[in-house]
Amino acid sequence: MKPAQFDYARPKTVEEACGILAADMDARVLAGGQTLVPMLAMRLSRPSVLVDITRIAGLQGIACSDDTVEIGAVTRQAAALASEVIRAEVPLLAKALRHVGHPPTRCRGTVGGSVAHGDPSAEIPLAVTVLGAEIVFVGEDGEEERFAPEDFFIGPMLTTAPMGGLLTRLVFPRRAAAPTGTGFREVASRRSDYAFASAGAQVVLNADGTCAEARLGIGSVGDTPVAVDISGLSGTRLTAQDIRGAVVEALSDLETVDDLHATASYRKRAAVRLAELALAEARDDALEQAG
Amino acid sequence: MKTELTVNGQTRVIDVEPRTTLLDVLRDGLGLTATHAGCEHGVCGACTVLVDGEAVRSCLILGVQADGLDIRTVEGLTSGDGALDIVQDAFCETHGLQCGYCTSGMILAAHALLRVNAAPDEEEIREAISGNICRCTGYQQIVEAIQLAAERIRTSNTLKAGEVVK
Predict the structure, then answer these.
(1) CB < 8 Å to B72, chain A
(2) CATH superfamily of the B86-155 domain
(3) Which end of chain B has fewer CB atoms within 10 angstroms, the N or the C?
């Protein structure tokens, strides 16, 4: 359980990091290392050089603009969880972060690292998918390239990240001024473990209390987190029957996988129920804001 | 690779191979064996140390990554004359340990919690130690130990969690 040999580089700029990554196909980015270091220890990953990006100025921090919240790639999960800006403006991400690992791993693990790793059962990629956040890379030519989640996550731990590129930030849309409720649910064998199924939801209400916009995403059940079209809920009062009907229809062709921990049919049932619970939680949250 | 490590208040520059984890640097390089090696891949929490006051897994940080960071291990909780700190004392009183393998990690996880939350409820305590596995106690006495330590820190004028006897 000791890693094989590798070199270690700690570049000070994005350009320097991209240069090292572009020059060596077997170079890998090291951010918080909470997933990569176990993979090194088990020798599932054998990089030639690790490029530690955590001390690059400009990759840290959370910034709010008129309609977006930008999170630097190496912002630690614990810092994001403690952020007032994220709690107020990207509340679904704040809820999802509570389920990411446990306090010691959140202290080192980064928001960008989780997205770049692309684990289908990870909570941050699910929040990115539900909210349609943009994933921003800088390539070796210094040009920015932006990815939508559905174009980025293409398989288990498989993404369309450009070779020699570095994930620099995530751009989340700010919540609407209208009452915006969120819900996040998952089922796992124990706290902090990988989820068997997870659901994230966000609803925005009209002034009359009907649903203006509903978003839903399902994680952990297939090869990638998936955004689910739940627009049929718009205009309804989000009663339990409204939600049940829309979820069952929307998830009718959801692809789920079998593994040691859960069968595909279990995952399907769990996804439907978790989606209902997440949407109901989002509705109640929004109604509370509406007063 | 030359690495500057500040461990329990002492700064030293040592040569660290990139693949060596902070856990192995502490135990094999510096002889600080209170930090226990358990699973060595981030699951058990036995190797928990404080980095800049926060509980982290020393098996999931490379020694070279810890360059310039402030690291505290169980050896750094007291002056080393056999005295126990307030959290260690509470673990003894409530029978919060049996075999002792997880205890260093549990104590530092408790310290990290009590630094930021002087009056944690049971749920917050369980969350704080959710990454630490104990196979002896069933956790209940560990929760009680942390509650007792919190109460003593709140009601006494002695050392706060994380403070060190000089």
Answers:
(1) none
(2) [2Fe-2S]-binding domain (1.10.150.120)
(3) C
Inspect the interface and report whether the beta carbons of A33 and B65 lie closer than 8 Å. Answer: yes
- pLDDT surpassing 60 at residue B65: yes
Domain topology for A180-290: Enolase-like; domain 1 (3.30.390)
Contact A33 B41 (CB under 8 A): no
Q: Residue B32: what pLDDT?
A: 97
Q: Is the ipTM of this complex over 0.95?
A: no
Mean pLDDT estimate for chain B: 93
Backbone angles phi, psi at A198, to 5 degrees: -150, 155
Residues with Cβ within 8 Å of A44's Cβ and at least 6 positions away in sequence, in order, are none
Q: How many CB atoms lie within 10 A of CB B101?
A: 18
Q: Where in chain B is the domain with CATH 3.10.20.30?
A: 2-76
What are the start and end residues of each CATH 1.10.150.120 domain in chain B?
Answer: 86-155
The residues that bridge with A155 in the sheet, in sequence order, are A158
The strand order across the sheet containing A134-138 reads A62-64, A68-72, A166-173, A134-138, A144-147
